[in-house]
Amino acid sequence: MRKGLKSTLMTVAVALLGLKAMAMAPTISSLPDVIIGDEAGGASSSASMDNNFVYPDAYNIDSKATDDNTSAGGLRFSFLNPGGHISINAKTRLDGSAENLDNPGPNYSLDGAGDDPDSVDANKRTLTFRNIQFSPLPKPVSYPDPGTPVGVPSDPQLVTLVASDGTTHTEASFTAYIVNDGSDALSPSSVTVLDQDLTQPNGWVYFQDVATGTVSHSGPDANGLCVTVAAEGVNIIGWNSQAEYIVNGVVGTPYNTVTLVDNAVYQAR
To answer: Is 129 exposed, middle or buried (0-12, 13-18, 19+ CB in 10 A)?
Structure first.
């Protein structure tokens, strides 16, 4: 009986030892989407020229990842970007390479030698995002306009961050956008894509559709829309945007519609 008990205890000890030897992969918390603007002199941008789509020192990656055996500062980070438009800390994406995701080389590791020239804090653990499709390095005298709608999140790029403790790794994805003539931001920060008064000179036309009856009052008032009708039924009043509206007999320019972007959420108010 004693011999059997001893054998059982040894088996349990060996099993526990084997479990302890298996390192857990790092954990990455929810990553915000990144909105890269080109507004020179913005509060969170060091861009010194127009159309320089770079978001310097967006956040410290040590606040986004943890590991059971490795300190946050000891984790290695790299990234994937199938679209090929994004660089982080001026490093090369892993897509198409033969790099080991558990131990990426210095050209791929985000805290490897060198950094984006627009980084301002000299800390490579804070990530600087650049759209190299529209703002490649090295920096020229000036960048051309990207031709994307002003103020609208555009060119959505899937980015996957890879965190490694040297023996195992984990991945988490987010989307990076650019905003022409916009400011840098992280989701869930909102970006205003259109801000207009609902008036005819801006391409909006008042309309009404009321049930049978006499309209005793209608029209765009100072504080909104109002209509009073004598009959119950479907009574609708609102504003309608028109592509080519006429003011004083003159055809205006086409109304500035909003171009929707995949994976973006819009709020009208």
So the answer is: buried
Cis peptide before 188 (omega within 30 of 0): yes
Q: Where are the domains of the chain?
A: 23-186, 194-269
CB 88 within 8 A of CB 127: yes
pLDDT tens-digit profile of 34-91?
Answer: 999 987 544 444 445 789 999 999 999 988 888 888 876 789 999 999 999 999 999 9
SS3 for the chain is CHHHHHHHHHHHHHHHHHHHHCCCCCEECCCCCEEEECCCCCCCCCCCCCCCCEECCCCEHHHCEECCCCCHHHCEEEEECCCCCEEECCECCCCCCCCCCCCCCCCCCCCCCCCCCCCCCCCCCECCEEECCCCCCCCCCCCCCCCCCECCEEEEEEEEEEEECCCCEEEEEEEEEEEECCCCEECCCCCCCCCCCCCHHHCEEEEEECCCCCEEEEEEECCEEEEEECCCCCCEEEEEECCCCEECCEECCCCCCCCCCCCCCCCCC
Residue with tokens 């084997």: 18
Tokens 């994307």, residue? Answer: 148
> CA 195 to CA 267: how far, in whole Å?
12
Q: What is the pLDDT of residues 209-242, one digit of tens each?
A: 766 555 555 555 555 666 677 667 777 776 666 6
Contact (Cβ atoms closer than 8 angstroms) between residue 251 and residue 242: no
252-268 per-position pLDDT tens digit: 555 556 666 665 666 66
- The predicted-structure confidence for 168-214, as pLDDT tens digits, reads as follows 999 999 999 999 988 898 887 556 666 666 655 556 666 667 665 55
Residues in the chain, total: 269
